[in-house]
Specification:
The protein is an alpha/beta fold and about 550 residues long. The chain has two domains: about 5-225, no CATH class; about 255-515, Rossmann fold, CATH 3.40.50. Helices cover about 45% and strands about 10% of the residues. It has helices spanning about 5-25, 40-50, 60-70, 75-80, 90-100, 100-110, 120-130, 135-150, 150-160, 165-175, 180-190, 200-205, 205-215, 220-230, 295-305, 330, 335-345, 360-375, 380-385, 415-420, 425-445, 470, 500-510, 510-515, 525-535; strands at about 245-250, 260-265, 305-310, 355-360, 385-395, 445-450, 455-460, 460-465, 480. The strands form two sheets. Strands 1-3-2-4-5-6-9 form a seven-stranded mixed beta sheet, sandwiched between helices.
């Protein structure tokens, strides 16, 4: 999505307010005055600490805010709005904010704006053409706002125009929509990357909400909240988790030192969580009660608690049939994605300690590209020096058969950049593989590769081995063919399965030296020690 300048941020917020106006029968919204700056830096850190404690309840955050400030307990509940579904509507400040939006909406909606800009007069015009469900419109606006929140200057606009409070209201109204709530928390996580906005986020009550969401049984929701809280926690966390980088473990504050990192990179059409779920069961009634939606978070974290486990997400497509912007093609290339992900991972502290990479399909090509780029950049050399091992799940080192069907398959009539780059015997792919093979031999990195022996159904017409065995075999390290298809090659059937146990053994062996090393527990400040005791006593 193209974001030419920050005025679009205000327009997007107003579109969302316009939706709230329709849902609340005449209540309209305007800019909320900046919250009072009563919270000191120390108190802010302590509130975040309570929020990141494993057994925190939202009432603890509200009571703590009341204890350290001059506000009443009832006002502190306004700052933790999930305590009462009507807490925001009952606040005089927020009520006045809601009642002022009419003039701003009328003013900006009367201005010029394109249909697809998520602002100006585009939204009312689109609504006049068809009956678009309000939830769908809100979802579009929130996706646009999430894009805006990736631009630092736009983040200031979101906060200045009352975005934190508006997002809070929508979060409550859409409690039944995980997708909408996920986009909202994603935006808060992006805002939390900027320390000068931390006070506004804390004072607007988001820490209590995030603390509750982090305990959700839904792994995606919980991980979005964990990322946001980690970005807010500047007392015990030095790293910053940018958009698309998720911390699966440890998600709470802990005194146990982290000895190494394990990074998970998905492939084409994959995602940071769904790619790494347990193998699906055809008979859902007989599904194991211990079924996990993300085995690295559930199994690996339990088997190796001293590891930090990260998962990366990026957009990928089979076809450019619905491509929205020509500039997107360059952004989808391996070269661009590799540079972008490497920069994000460096900000997350990858390279500061030993690391093992785990990649599925095209994700393995990204890992290869990132390591080669890092080897040529003095500021990224630590990433190379600390790489101890790589697990490849059906990575098309020599190309994939998927690209061969780009003409015959209707949905691949316009193959995406990603698919084109997977063509067998591609010169660029051959060069990448040759350079990486030389790199591995020079740096003596441990390699474990798995290959698929069963075909995968692509749509209803195509059945093929997406990555042939000869393409999945790098020729270095152990190579293990398995009786699974391309989708299930990275989805163990159970914690006792050969696929998981062999992967676990490789990770432990590659990091054996670090895992055996004794590291003193992290010293805590007096405030952090108090929070740790609170967590243990709850």
């Amino acid at each position: 999505m193209h974001l030419p300048h920050s005025r679009r941020t205000e327009e997007t917020l107003l579109d969302l307010a316009h939706q709230i106006h329709h849902r609340q029968q005449g209540v309209e919204v305007s800019r909320l005055p900046p919250p009072p700056m009563w919270m000191s830096g120390m108190h802010q850190d302590m509130v975040v600490g309570i929020g990141r404690s494993r057994k925190t309840r939202s009432t603890m955050v509200a009571q703590f805010i009341a204890d350290i400030s001059d506000v009443s307990p009832s006002m502190s509940k306004v700052l933790v709005p999930n305590i009462s579904s009507t807490s925001i509507a009952g606040s005089n400040d927020v009520h006045s904010w809601l009642c002022k939006m009419k003039g701003h909406v009328a003013h900006l909606h009367s201005g010029k704006g394109g249909l697809w800009c998520f602002g100006g007069n585009g939204l009312p015009y689109a609504q006049s053409l068809s009956s678009v469900p309000s939830e769908k419109v809100e979802s579009f606006c929130l996706q646009a706002l999430a894009k805006h929140s990736k631009v630092p200057s736009h983040c200031d606009k979101i906060v200045m125009n009352g975005g934190l409070q508006l997002l809070q209201k929508i979060y409550q109204l859409r409690h039944d929509s995980q997708k909408i709530q996920r986009n909202i928390i994603r935006t808060i996580g992006n805002l939390a990357l900027h320390e000068h906005l931390h006070s506004a986020i804390a004072q607007s009550g988001w820490i209590g909400i995030l603390a509750e969401v982090m305990k959700s049984p839904h792994v995606i929701q919980a991980s979005h909240a964990a990322r946001a809280l980690a970005n807010l926690d500047r007392e015990t966390v030095e790293e910053k988790y940018e958009d698309g980088v998720y911390i699966l473990h440890p998600q709470f504050r802990t005194s146990q030192p982290i000895k190494a990192d394990v990074l998970f990179i998905h492939g084409l059409l994959g995602a940071a969580f769904k790619t790494w779920r347990q193998k699906d069961h055809s008979d859902m009634e007989n599904k194991d009660t211990n079924y996990t939606e993300c085995w690295p978070k559930t199994w690996l974290a339990a088997d190796c608690p001293s590891l930090r486990i990260l998962s990366v997400e990026y957009d990928s497509h089979l076809s450019d049939w619905r491509s929205k912007c020509p500039m997107e093609n360059e952004r989808k290339s391996l070269a661009y994605r590799g540079r972008e992900l490497l920069t994000k991972l460096k900000a997350a502290g990858v390279g500061d300690r030993p690391v093992v990479w785990v990649a599925h399909s095209m994700g393995g090509l990204l890992v290869k590209k990132m390591l080669l780029d890092a080897s040529e950049d003095p500021e990224m050399r630590s990433v190379v020096q600390n790489t101890q091992g790589i697990v490849f799940y059906s990575v098309p080192h020599s190309g994939s058969r998927l690209a061969e069907y780009s003409v015959s398959a209707r949905f691949l009539l316009f193959p995406s950049v990603e698919v084109k780059e997977l063509s067998k015997d591609s010169p660029a792919l051959r060069e990448l593989n040759n350079n990486f093979t030389k790199f591995i031999r020079e740096h003596e990195v441990n390699i474990l590769s798995f290959g698929e022996m069963l075909p995968t159904y692509i749509g209803s017409m195509i059945k093929l081995h997406v990555v042939p065995l000869n393409s999945a075999d790098l020729g270095i390290g152990d190579f293990i063919p398995l009786d699974v298809n391309h989708l299930n090659i990275c989805k163990p059937g159970s914690r006792d399965s050969f696929l998981y146990q062999r992967s676990l053994k490789f990770i432990k062996d590659a990091l054996a030296k670090e895992l055996k090393r004794t590291i003193p527990r992290i010293p805590m400040s007096e405030e952090a020690t108090t929070l740790y005791c609170i967590r243990r006593e709850c």
